[in-house]
Amino acid sequence: MGKKPENRLNDLSGREWLYWTDTLYITAYPVDATHPLRKQHGAMKPPEVMAEIVRFFTKKGEMVLDPFAGVGGTLLGAELEERQALGFEINPRWVEIYATICRNFAICEGQIRPLKEIAGQAYRRISAPMYQGDCLKLLKELPPASVDAIITDPPYGCDHGATGFADETNFNMQGQVPDPWADLGNAPDLAAFLTGMASVGRELHRVLKPGRYLVMMVGDRYRQGEYLPLGYILANCMREVGFKLKGVKIWSNKATRRRLKPYAVYSVFVPNITHQNILILRKE
Ligand SMILES: C[S@@+](CC[C@H](N)C(=O)[O-])C[C@H]1O[C@@H](n2cnc3c(N)ncnc32)[C@H](O)[C@@H]1O
What is the residue with the minimal CA distance to atom 7 of ligand 1? Predict the structure, then answer.
């Protein structure tokens, strides 16, 4: 029998590794204890799903970065897996919700649970920092090749104002020049969004260690009577700044899937988009 090869990426067994390479990824996580707080965001991801992604793309103790951290799905996933993590988020409201979670919840027996319910049991506090600000500026403060994985869920900036944050007050608070388009969820059109994402992508490529992965969760869209393959478009955008696209997993969380809506029944085909693309990109 030959010697078992060294696992250079994660702490999984060969069997677990193989299972994760399936391009279809159906999960069934119900809402967790932090959901009532996190759901105010509307585009948050289940920490358990993020934990599975973290587990594949890092080893215990390594550093995970989320430049579009929202209310902390990736940071909480990294905490569940005992990784270090760092997040950037432009909207102070989401940073505050994450801070509330850090104050009132902890990891106990592999779950995020309210501190008040786990008195007397062993637990770990949630301490991964989330800094408020424009990730494009904050990324410039990180040294090159300093993070082991970037796992993120970018805003989908096609003039829908999803984060509702074209508000100047936040920028004044920081003493910065107001820049309503810094929130990429408010980009005026797809071209402006992609220009912003390319700038962020170049910084992500700089701060990631060679041989490691950028993982992006991206939902496709249906707009103005046409399917917009945003996953494919963003994958290409990241290829243009130097990443190699290594694969896509099609993810759907059965437990929180919304009901199908009867779009244009008996008339034309309009999809109910119930999946997200998990883009797996590598710095080679
Ligand atoms: C799809 S959400 C991420 C949700 C997150 N995965 C979670 O579980 O909560 C994208 C986030 O990117 C933030 N964002 C948009 N532009 C940004 C920027 N330039 N710098 C940092 N965050 C930004 C938005 O405010 C939004 O919260």
Answer: 44
Q: Ligand 1 mean position to 268 CA, how many Å?
A: 34
**Mean pLDDT confidence for 78-90:** 98
Q: Which atom of ligand 1 is nearest to the CA of 134?
A: 20
The CA-CA-CA angle for residues 50, 116, 98, to 5°, reads: 40
Is any ligand 1 atom within 6 A of the Cβ of residue 70? Answer: yes
Per-residue pLDDT at 257? 87
- Residue 231 maps to a domain: yes
Task: Grade residue 15 by pLDDT with cuts at 50, 70 and 90.
Answer: very high
User: How many A from CA of 133 to the centre of ligand 1?
Assistant: 10
Residue span of the structural domain in which 262 resides? 14-282
Is 134's C-beta closer than 6 angstroms to any atom of ligand 1? yes
- C-alpha span between 270 and 142 (Å, rounded): 43
**Residue 132 within a domain:** yes
98 neighbors 127 (Cβ within 8 angstroms) = no
27 is a domain residue: yes
* Percent share of the chain, pLDDT over 70: 91
* 125 in any annotated domain: yes
